[in-house]
Design a protein that fits this description.
GO biological process, one term: DNA integration
Number of helices: 7
Number of strands: 0
CATH class of the largest domain: Mainly Alpha
Largest sheet: none
Distance between the termini: 36 Å
CATH architecture of the largest domain: Orthogonal Bundle
Protein name: Phage integrase
CATH superfamily of the largest domain: Tyrosine recombinase, N-terminal domain
GO molecular function: DNA binding
Helix content: over 70%
Order of helices and strands: HHHHHHH
InterPro entries: CB, DNA_brk_join_enz, Integrase_DNA-bd_sf, Integrase_DNA_bind_dom, Integrase_recombinase_N, Phage_int_M, Phage_Integrase
Shape: elongated
Organism: Obesumbacterium proteus ATCC 12841
Number of domains: 2
Strand content: under 5%
CATH topology of the largest domain: DNA polymerase, domain 1
Radius of gyration: 21 Å
């Protein structure tokens, strides 16, 4: 089992991880399987872009019903398929621009501009 790459993982940290792995083995638990299960559990608990976007959308009470419907449809059609299931804290600026650039490449510049505005607002809301 690898515990990290030097110098990102110090020798002391590697020893702690080794000791923890030995405790798991002594308890009859495969350390790799345990690590995988913990990672999957954290992924389930992660807050996704789509969940934050829907929460942001629900908080905008000033919008008319028709405008609210159009905003949500735009997000569902253009952003959620590409980045909706990803954890909100895993994004870089480049990741957020990819679906917007796809829309821009199709010639829908106004839609791309509004998506960028909404993405910025969603990320500000997430913070």
């Amino acid at each position: 089992m690898a515990f990290g790459v030097y110098p990102e993982t110090s020798l002391a940290d590697a020893r702690k991880k080794r000791d923890e792995s030995r405790r798991l083995v002594a308890a009859g638990i495969d350390p790799r399987e345990h690590k995988r299960a913990v990672r999957e559990e954290q992924a389930k608990e992660a807050i996704t872009f789509e969940s934050v976007a829907r929460e942001w959308h629900a908080t905008n009470n000033k919008w008319s019903e028709e405008h609210s419907r159009r905003v949500l449809k735009s997000l569902e059609d253009n952003l959620f398929p590409a980045i909706g299931k990803r954890s909100i804290d895993s994004f870089s600026t480049r990741d957020l621009l990819v679906p917007i650039k796809v829309v821009e490449a199709t010639g829908r510049l106004e839609v791309a501009s509004r998506l960028q505005q909404r993405t910025n607002a969603i990320m500000r809301y997430a913070v």
